[in-house]
Amino acid sequence: MEGREEIRLEALKALTILAIHDEQFRTGVWDDPEGTLTRYGFLLNDQEMTKVMNFRDALADSIQEDVVRGLTSSHR
Amino acid sequence: MTRRLGEVGNAEGRSKKASADTGRKRERVESVFAFLNELILACPVGPDYRHLLQIHLDVGKEQAEAWPEMSSVQLPLLVHSAITGDERPALPVAGACTLLYLGADLFDSIVDHELPPSWHTRDSSQASLAATTLLGALPQRSIARLQDRGTPPARLWTLAHLFSDAGLTMGAGQYEDLLLPSLENVSLEDSRATAERKSGAEYALFATAGAALATEDPSTIEAYAAFGSCFGIAQQFINDAKDIWGDKRGQDLLNGKLTLPIVHALSTLRGERRERLQKLLRASWGSTEYHDEVRTLLAEAGSLRYTALIVWLHQQQARTQLASASPREPAGRELYTLLDQASILPHSRAPQNSD
Question: Chain B within 8 Å of A58 (Cβ-Cβ)?
């Protein structure tokens, strides 16, 4: 289980900006997350990279039907 | 073997904590809605109008009983407790936040033609009047209760300003949301900015109001404001995804709303596929016939996966902001748990973060 070590705020903000504005980044971050992050100049430490990869793997493992099932539980 | 025993012990401990947390959430719901019921009963208006205001209070209570995580109830109380160790003084603030939430919720329901059954026998102008009163008049009456509890006037003034500023920003966000379908080209940044002004401002208020009652330290208040804003943006995009793929199944499509997954697909698909999606979206206004094909094209564009990424990035930002505020326990743990639930991944698949 991960603890409460967080990804640095500056990195998260930069990742969000790229995910919103840069189509090449959006494509690359799924196909080759580590390579794409390196090409864009991110120097994430091991814990930060683990968090990114855990999220990416959890999402990749969830076939769409599973994700949809998760969405049927209430969110407000 | 020791590790295995430790895991079982931790699992049992987490289960007990989760159960206790759920009990506390329900107690907060009970306290806030009992407070609001009494507040409305004390309003100097006739019984018919009082009843009109209570209709949506009852709708909100039903929602909160089904989903006690309701942010307008939990965030102000938990943030106050995370700073001072005591949540009770923030009850009128949670009341004010919940009134604002109920007003905004009722207004959304009117715009989206989704009024709950308790409004079906009433003219929508009566619902509009109730929404206006819930948004514009009652939160101040709730905040005024703090005066009876000895809150200094300067802090009351700060809270009044916060509600005014948040109401203004949320109004601007709502207006942009109404305009988006009529715009020729909507960008992903437009979607994000609208979510920030609409839901981000709302959740930022819920967290900031609890913080501003608890402390005058600007860095703590700012950290909770940023935490709330990112949490609210994440929640908005979860709702956008839920509307398309979840149990509501397409109300936004019926209303022609350009939510983040749709905008992403329009930004990603090219040529005939994009034109096909545009045609299907127009045909989806008022009819569910083409919704499945819209979902197929969104899947082709990877729009659910993209929405999950944007939700996660905002959820992680909220975590980092929360950590920077060093919340006291047990409120801190409860705030992290609420935040962990703001994910598009099924909870069994989501990377777990809370201790």
Answer: yes
Residue A2 in any domain: the answer is no
- Inside any domain, residue A56: yes
pLDDT at position B72 over 90: yes
* Interface contact flag, B346 A67, Cβ < 8 Å: yes
The answer to whether A10 contacts chain B (CB < 8 Å) is no
Percent of chain B beyond pLDDT 90? 68
d(CA B212, CA B283): 48
Flag whether residue B344 sits within 8 Å of chain A, measured between CB atoms. yes
Domain B2-340 has CATH 1.10.238.10: no
Identify the CA nearest to A44 among candidates B71, A55, A58: A55
On average, the pLDDT of chain B sits at 89
**B82 and B221 in contact (C-beta within 8 Å)?**
no
Q: Which two tokens stand for residue B19?
A: 């159960």
Structural domain containing residue A16: 9-71
Judged by CB atoms closer than 8 Å, whether chains meet at A6 and B320 is answered as yes
Quick one: tokens of B185? 């080209």
Show me where the domains of chain B are located.
2-340
Q: Do B317 and A23 touch (CB under 8 A)?
A: no
Minimal Cβ distance to B313: which of A16, A69, A74: A16
Q: Are B271 and B304 in contact (CB under 8 A)?
A: no
Q: Smallest CA–CA separation between A50 and chain B, in Å? A: 11
Average pLDDT over residues B174-180: 83
Task: Write down the pLDDT at residue B6.
Answer: 32
pLDDT score, position A1: 36
- Report yes or no on A40 lying in a domain: yes
ipTM exceeding 0.85, yes/no: no
Nearest to B67 among A6, A8, A74 (CB): A74
